[in-house]
Amino acid sequence: MAKTNQKWHERFRDRGLRFTQPRRVILDVLDNTADHLSAEEIYMRVHKKYPNIGLTTVYRNLITLERMGIVTKFHFGDGCHRFELIENKKKPDHHHHLVCTGCKRIIDYDDFMDEEIEYIKKVESALSRKHSFNITDHVIQFYGLCKKCKAA
Amino acid sequence: MAKTNQKWHERFRDRGLRFTQPRRVILDVLDNTADHLSAEEIYMRVHKKYPNIGLTTVYRNLITLERMGIVTKFHFGDGCHRFELIENKKKPDHHHHLVCTGCKRIIDYDDFMDEEIEYIKKVESALSRKHSFNITDHVIQFYGLCKKCKAA
DNA sequence: TTAATAATGATAACCGGTAGCAATTAGTAA
DNA sequence: TTACTAATTGCTACCGGTTATCATTATTAA
Questions:
Q1: Which has the higher per-residue pLDDT, A149 or A61?
Q2: Do B13 and B66 fall within a single domain?
Q3: Interface mutation vs chain B, best among A94, A133, A135, A143, most B CBs within 10 Å
């Protein structure tokens, strides 16, 4: 329940885009999950309530939402992209995940958050200067096996 | 020129695998580049000198080489996997890259290396304990635009 | 209400990567 | 050296995720 439809509507209008039913529904799905859903998974949830909305439309709108800065796209090495509503995250633009390579479960961790952000900032500014880069994003991911998958 | 063919040959034999021409050639390509090549790119270089070696063989052997711990596979978000000979890296099992989202250039940086490794270790052990994970790997990547792509 | 045009949905295509399978070949044992 | 045999290769067809095409539909400014 991060943003009312009215708010979303404005964000689209401000860019000269339309606030269509598919967009409303996709945002609703993203706003009502804690998971990192793939396009296919989002489509399935959308499809359950609105069977008339097509897969292509979901893909297209995820791109649009990413461009609008509403959604972030990740790749965790399982062969598909996964999406997260930016408004749902505790700290914007800081993406760190713990990924189980067995069951593909993804955990957003927040240990050492402040320390990590500070470290990232330092490296970012050093790298920007040294390599003349305009750094816009970063990713920290740990891979391993969760308790269940270790046992299995 | 990291390893002589004899050395590679032993590593394959020790696992009951054969040291074939395609494997020799693929390793040679990987050993003679500083870039992070995709399977397709490796295939093209292989193909130039040995047109009889097929694309499938390249894919298959990259998997084999990864299993053997000779090669590391990365994904930088450009839709394909990229490979690096482990022997060529300064510090094994520590992967940090600066990626230009414009021209896809990838820079291996080594600033704050020791500090970063120490920090990673700390987070890793904390996350392992807290989430009962068996952490085997991690990735740190910065994304942005390089000097050229900024201007363009 | 209507005109203009952004957005949609169905289909086909694309692209990186993989499976199946007959033919070949590296490495061992005679 | 030769013969054997399983590992490996190279086709081809196929797969799953994603994107292009294009005629149709629907949002929104006037």
A1: A61
A2: yes
A3: A133
